[in-house]
């Protein structure tokens, strides 16, 4: 019944790990060929892989885990998906209903543990309602603001049989988020758009979650109005990096021109982003002279952090469609002279060239490694995952994304160990594409057991490790905030990554010389199979630009020289 | 606040910022939340308050529609206007939550609470307790030669006042139900 429900929901791939309490479901999986099961090496890997699958396809990702430790290991992945609004369904086994509460072997209060880290969860106590519950789970995961859901299924419920409910018969009427925006508010936004002198679009992951149509409409609106656009980490790819109005990513490690535009604008149009603290910096000084419009499908995102002047609750694609319709009907008015002046100002900021670095000597700069990776892979059909830390920010700065769903990264939760299993999920969904996980050596080690999965299922994922033998971002904060006392932020006793790859039956490549880098990257791309690329980079490179905690957008640090005394005691308590 | 025209029962409209937001004034609001009566739904609501650091001053819950399996949770909470708005929209996100009403801004409402008070002692104090109970229209639901149990219903302030008066008269134990509330008028 579970497998039938998954099939009817269009599931073709499940990431999971068997155990006592899910054996009946595994027995069903064994006896069919429609759903492919990918055996991971740790349940956290299963959930991240499902996230990678979901993010790279726009479909719902599915993970299957056993009771007790299986379910608790899934918690990090669930929380990650909740913070980044990724639609996934996790099915967990549970001890039989008559044993619940008896501290049975591998029993955990899974529904209790996962309640705050899922969008919704169910304990399926009744086989007659199981199939309907699974359909409802898929509905909740993908509707409105997407997110993770969990269905906990006791073993006796798995064994029992009952009548099957088809997806179209399942009752989902209770949860129907509003898609269309309020037309009065849309009119108000269009009026503001027509007169704004210094408008800016600030877009987020919501555009990507809304679907391809949302990205297409966003591109149409930006190109028709010539208004500059920046995006959060999660929203990269919704507007192409090669587009002429693209400012680059904003936020703590965002580009100078993007953050300055946010600070100085007179109209900010937030589309599917949530004013995260990595974006706003010091809230009191956040974009002080602008009217702010906020389009979000989740009413609780609006006015949560930043006061909004024009709030619009609705789905991005629906709202953008209405905005374009209204704006065109009113005669496509814009303050073109004002915007042209604004574009000139932005060009000046661009000249600061905030990402500049010098590749010299025998040591590879991490920025250079990513610049070369970009140059050598940008024409490929490419999906990029990352772990968390400096390499993640450099990847966001130096890699260009032309399309949505091409970029998988842990934004909200910042989960080290996310990228490798996510790359497995993305590769499963796109077997012919080039899937690269840009990693740091420390993050990568957190889920390195998934190398077994990659080799077993012949998934040619490329693990591009920028190895600085440090927890680079921790080290950077210790340098700037904690008096250069580098407490436990170096990677001692690292494995030989080439030998490690070989031990798993994969290919390892080592590179520590800038002159060899291009050839080594090409060797990685051209190898048909999983590769661990150990790229030894400069150990003490800091990630700039940086808005220190507790500072506004216009007080960015641009490089080493500007860091002296830049962060006051008040900022040090912020993360 | 009375001048604000907020459509009744509209959680969605709470995103439209109709009240002076982001002020530091602490306000007390009574929220009525209609939910599916399913296992764990109260834990979801309470978990939201504790997880996000909101206050609960009073909370009552009971099934109100046996056939539809709906329960009504009445929660009294305190916070700045921004926090109150957040609480309402966050409650609205919970999947088994059907409606969120802010009775404090949606118009006049009645609030009632039931309290049980055990008062011990003899002599003048015992007589005075009985006399005050009469003034407050509290009923004696249990009595011994040394004690009374009074039952009182009313707005929370009335019950607070009664408690203050009983304290010097030998109050030993209190049980209160928390607030149940409904809007006034036909709708």
Structure description:
- Chain A has 575 residues and is α/β, with parallel strands linked by helices.
- Chain A contains 24 helices and 18 strands.
- In chain A, helix 7 (127-142) links the parallel strand 5 (120-123) and strand 6.
- The radius of gyration of chain A is 24 Å and the shape is globular.
- The mean pLDDT of chain A is 95.
- Chain B is α+β, with helices and mostly antiparallel strands.
- Chain B has 2 domains: 12-102, ACT domain (Alpha-Beta Plaits); 109-183, ACT-like. Chain A, domain 2 (Alpha-Beta Plaits), CATH 3.30.70.1150.
- Helix content of chain B is 26%, strand content 37%.
- Chain B has helices at residues 41-51, 81-93, 123-135, 156-166, and strands at 27-36, 58-65, 70-79, 97-102, 109-120, 139-143, 147-154, 171-176, 180-183.
- In chain B, strands 5, 6, 7, 8 and 9 form a 5-stranded antiparallel beta sheet that branches.
- In chain B, a hairpin with a 4-residue loop joins strand 2 (58-65) and strand 3 (70-79).
- The radius of gyration of chain B is 19 Å and the shape is elongated.
- Classes of the chains: A alpha/beta (575), B alpha+beta (187).
Q: How are the SSEs placed, and which strands pair?
A:
The complex is a heterodimer of chains A (about 575) and B (about 190).
Chain A: H1 2-8, E1 13-16, H2 23-30, E2 36-39, H3 43-57, E3 61-65, H4 69-73, H5 75-84, E4 88-94, H6 110-114, E5 120-123, H7 127-142, E6 148-154, H8 155-159, H9 183-195, E7 199-203, H10 205-210, H11 212-225, E8 229-231, E9 246-249, H12 256-264, E10 267-271, H13 277-280, E11 291-296, E12 310-313, H14 316-329, H15 336-350, H16 366-377, E13 382-386, H17 390-398, E14 407-408, H18 419-429, E15 434-440, H19 441-446, H20 451-456, E16 462-467, H21 472-481, H22 497-503, E17 507-511, H23 517-526, E18 531-536, H24 569-572
Parallel strand pairs in A: 1-2, 1-3, 3-4, 4-6, 5-6, 7-8, 7-10, 8-9, 10-11, 11-12, 13-14, 13-15, 15-16, 16-18, 17-18
Chain B: E1 27-36, H1 41-51, E2 58-65, E3 70-79, H2 81-93, E4 97-102, E5 109-120, H3 123-135, E6 139-143, E7 147-154, H4 156-166, E8 171-176, E9 180-183
Antiparallel strand pairs in B: 1-3, 1-4, 2-3, 5-7, 5-8, 5-9, 6-7
